[in-house]
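Sequence in, structure out. Go.
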Amino acid sequence: MKIDPTIPGPLAYKTNFLLIWWRIWFEQTAILLMDLLPRTFDIFLSLFLLIALAPILLVRAIVAKVSTGKVLNAEPLVGRFRTPFWRLCFGGDALGAKFAVLLNILVGDMAFAGPRPMTEEEVSRLTPEQGIRFTLRPGLFSPYRLRRKIGIAYDNETVSDINFYYSETVKGDVGLVARSVIGDLLAGGDLRPTPPVLHFFGVDIVNTTMDEAVDWMVKRVRDSAPASVAFVNPDCLNIACKNENYRQVLSAAERVLPDGIGINIGCRMLGVSLLANVNGTDLFPRLCERAAKEGLSLFLLGAKPGIAEAASLNLRGRFPELRIAGVRDGFFAAEETGQIVKEINDSNADILLVAFGAPKQELWLAEHRDKLKPCVRLGVGGLFDFYSGRLPRAPVWMREIGLEWTWRLLQEPGRMWRRYLIGNPLFLYRVWMQKRKEM
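Output:
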């Protein structure tokens, strides 16, 4: 009998050292290239801008020397691998002071795209989890800064930094820089005062954050304090200018929340800042998540037949613990209203969402305010269309530069053209007139 001397199992495999060394070399080279490509982009772009803007930079340096006695000021900050560096800017308050930061980018202290640079004091308050930001060069433009300017920074800065760390590419850096420039043009370069209430055409809008808005709604339910909540965009405010009944309903609502880039631009024109774009579409999943944790139930009323049901199914798939007390489409005769109100009340829902479109939904809620039992009632427009899957949401990059409205216009041009192409300029004109009267 012939005996096979081969050792069974993985011990019989021969070690291919050539393959091992190839993998090590390839992986190390790939890691090096991933680090070098963004750095190459920073070097070439900063060098190009320094050369192209050389006459302007020279004039700005002379102005700084004449006005302050020194060309550059320096601010101590913490960079990559927690290495201290000095961020440069030209002396004085004249235009172009921040152009000197191009020198920081050229020498490698900073990058065009990256996490926000921090002071030593800020660094001392960071948790170990937040230390991942120091594996990257701090950026002149950061994802969190961009979203905060536009009003959609719903996640905290750490989450934004971690997402950037795992997804950074040269293409992504170029896109972030481009979107940040557009975002600065739309929302303004500097942060302005943030009053607790914004005033537009006699309508008071609460200037708050997404998290605070959700907390407030949950607290109203827990305290058994009935509340009506409305979301307003430029189109809603244009309607309120002509529809006195609607304007009074908004004034009587416990909370009116800002929706859309138009409100952000209007705030800029009035010299104030919007804390966050607290629109219903972004608030809804956060409210559902919180309701699932708190054991609160929702009733969905509105939209075309089948849309509310589809939205309910999608939400239950995303939040298995969420309680949907009932759903009903918005196509019913006036004589059925009493039965609809009874159906809502019998469901024992804590929160009612009505999607009839503005101003119909707010007027309906106001008319039946004393009959409805759900504690918190919200008018949510076309919300169910998005969460049913009937209409896709605009890509994140479009939302980051405030162009979600163009996506909606392309989706439904026949219905939306008047709202955006006529309504948006009209809204800005009315804000300008309000500003003139306040001066």
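Check: The chain has two domains: 36-187, 197-433. The mean pLDDT is 90.
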